[in-house]
Task: inverse folding
């Protein structure tokens, strides 16, 4: 049974529609990310679920209970903020006890529950501290404990990792998943960071302009983006407009700007609407120096381009290589694993990139 | 070789110099004067005597005046706090582009000449003033209220001029308050009034303390409004000090009253901060 059901949710400010006819069903115990650029409506959606904004129309139901017009303090929906929003005048213990007291939990029970929640985020020893005396990561874990101590069926995360540095972001992301298994809540995770969304969620809803443009598992979103926006927003990509499209048996043949001829599989297996864009993931591409004796011999089943090395970014585990290809507005980028073999590409020299035809995605 | 002067002294010196010349020196002179004697002819004699202080503290008339000054100060501070808090909260929650205009409106009493403002109150508060005439006309009262030349009238006029100070101080605190904290509180199950009581109010304590202390100390030393709206009937420390200085020419006694007023102010504010700080949590600096 679906736990959270959002139907035809609309939010308008004057003539400005921030959220348009949103439909989401989140399964019990699932973590769903709302991923999109700023202003795509993801935070507004979250705040409507929390009750901080009221929707213009549509409905929000949690376990069959209509939430749409329930005031925020009666919703039993947890909310974790980007800036932690801990009460600076209360100790860690008092922060976590705040919700229990407001819910009329008997005094004798409060201490045990607060310490239990603090233990699950490894902060039981800091219960008497004030938020200002803690690091960002610790504060966010207090905020998690403060929310989870109430055992809400649904927890909303409003970019909770954005203010933390990269290492901590990863560690806390893993911790949130562990806490989800421990407490069994359903989660909605708002973020503009696609990597965060991929690692933390069971499913991702990519939002743009107040709508969901694609919903699916991280694998589906990454491997089969629905449109150029998703392809560009999620992960690194080489995205180019195409022209002179011709259908062939099971294939599309077309030209990139500059007249480079490429092929792509026609998934529909037959001519449907001809594509306008082609996209290639940088890690699907092989790059090498152009051999001296290079004739333009194309390998069967591969696409091939020739360019000049414009930059090489070494990140330790991999190289990001950019090529100037004649006619293309932007660099053609290649992500190459550090295989410990000798790296023989040089700036300004010619290089060949090749990738299997089925790695060319079309829209 | 010159010894290097720490840069903070250079930054501090203009202000310190002014304070020294116009504040510390006169205050010291005041303190010295307050120990002078007044001989029967009314002339003052240099001395180190407690005569003036003994006169003040042994006369119930003056003790009552001191008490009246303090309680009017407390009432004005409290009324300003209650009225000012909701005003400041309203402005802090208004749309940003409207806030400046609202603050200007609130600061308007400060931009009006004290004389005009107080004569305005005389016209409004008098027995045949606008307020009484209106209340009688709509049938709320049958006899005019005594407002002019009473403590009530003085309190009304003082609240009018003190309110902007309170609002400006509270506004700066409320405007900086993270609204997510209120959202978090309501998300954790706190109803509107409880959000206010457990989050907004404690976090605005620095503003409440600063605002009330400011209003209290200005009120206690305020002279124009009590003397015009209160007249000779509402005798306060500030007006009596003026009277002793200008009319009675008893400078030692006026000085002693000035010292007593200053010490009272320090005692009351010190006590007030102590009470609030004891109740406040140690994690937040309450001012």
Result:
């Amino acid at each position: 049974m679906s736990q959270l059901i959002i139907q035809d949710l609309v939010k308008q400010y004057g003539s400005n529609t921030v959220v348009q006819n949103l439909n989401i069903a989140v399964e019990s115990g699932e973590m769903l990310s709302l991923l999109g650029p700023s202003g795509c409506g993801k935070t507004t959606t979250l705040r409507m679920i929390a009750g901080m904004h009221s929707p213009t129309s549509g409905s929000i139901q949690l376990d069959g209970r209509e939430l749409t017009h329930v005031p925020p303090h009666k919703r039993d929906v947890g909310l974790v903020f980007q800036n932690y929003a801990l009460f600076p005048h209360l100790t860690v213990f008092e922060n976590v006890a705040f919700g229990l007291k407001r819910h009329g939990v008997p005094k004798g029970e409060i201490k045990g529950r607060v310490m239990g929640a603090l233990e699950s985020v490894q902060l039981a020893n800091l219960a008497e501290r004030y938020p200002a005396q803690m690091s960002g990561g610790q504060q966010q874990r207090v905020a998690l404990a403060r929310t989870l101590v109430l055992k809400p069926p649904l927890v909303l995360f409003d970019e909770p990792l954005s203010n933390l540095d990269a290492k901590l972001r990863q560690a806390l992301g893993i911790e949130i998943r562990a806490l989800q298994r421990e407490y069994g809540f359903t989660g909605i995770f708002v973020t503009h960071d696609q990597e965060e969304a991929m690692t933390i969620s069971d499913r991702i809803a990519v939002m743009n302009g107040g709508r969901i443009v694609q919903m699916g598992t991280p694998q589906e979103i990454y491997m089969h983006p629905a449109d150029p926006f998703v392809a560009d927003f999620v992960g690194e990509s080489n995205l180019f407009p195409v022209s002179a499209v011709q259908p062939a048996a099971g294939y599309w043949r077309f030209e990139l700007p500059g007249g480079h001829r490429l092929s792509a599989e026609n998934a529909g297996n037959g001519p449907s609407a001809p594509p306008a864009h082609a996209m290639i993931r940088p890690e699907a591409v092989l790059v090498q120096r152009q051999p001296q004796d290079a004739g333009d011999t194309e390998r069967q089943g591969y696409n091939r381009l020739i360019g000049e090395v414009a930059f090489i970014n070494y990140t330790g585990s991999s190289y990001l290589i950019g090529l100037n290809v004649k006619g293309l507005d932007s660099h053609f980028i290649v992500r190459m694993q550090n295989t410990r073999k000798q790296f023989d590409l040089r700036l300004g020299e010619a290089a060949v990139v090749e990738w299997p035809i089925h790695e060319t995605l079309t829209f | 070789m010159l010894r290097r002067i720490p840069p903070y002294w250079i930054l501090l010196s203009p202000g310190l110099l002014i304070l020294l010349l116009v504040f510390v020196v006169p205050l010291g002179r005041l303190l010295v004067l307050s120990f002078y004697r007044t001989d029967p002819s009314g002339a003052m004699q240099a001395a180190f005597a407690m005569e003036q202080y003994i006169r003040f503290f042994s006369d119930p008339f003056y003790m009552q005046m001191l008490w009246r000054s303090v309680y009017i100060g407390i009432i004005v501070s409290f009324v300003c706090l209650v009225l000012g808090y909701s005003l400041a909260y309203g402005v802090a929650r208004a749309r940003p582009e409207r806030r400046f205009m609202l603050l200007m409106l609130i600061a308007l009493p400060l931009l009006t000449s004290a004389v005009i403002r107080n004569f305005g109150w005389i016209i409004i508060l008098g027995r045949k003033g606008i307020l009484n005439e209106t209340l009688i006309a709509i049938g709320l009262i049958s006899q005019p209220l005594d407002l002019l030349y009473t403590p009530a009238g003085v309190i009304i006029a003082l609240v009018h001029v003190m309110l902007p100070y309170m609002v400006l101080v509270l506004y700066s605190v409320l405007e900086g308050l993270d609204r997510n904290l209120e959202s978090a509180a309501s998300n954790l199950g706190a109803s509107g009034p409880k959000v206010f009581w457990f989050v907004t109010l404690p976090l605005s304590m620095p503003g409440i303390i600063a605002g009330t202390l400011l209003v209290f100390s200005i009120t206690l030393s305020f002279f124009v409004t009590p003397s015009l709206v209160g007249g000779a009937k509402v005798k306060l420390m500030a007006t009596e000090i003026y009277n002793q200085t200008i009319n009675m020419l008893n400078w030692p006694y006026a000085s002693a009253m000035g010292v007593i007023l200053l010490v009272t102010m320090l005692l009351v504010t010190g006590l007030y901060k102590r009470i609030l700080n004891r109740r406040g949590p140690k994690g937040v600096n309450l001012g």
User: Anything to note?
Assistant: The two ends of chain B are 43 Å apart (CA to CA).
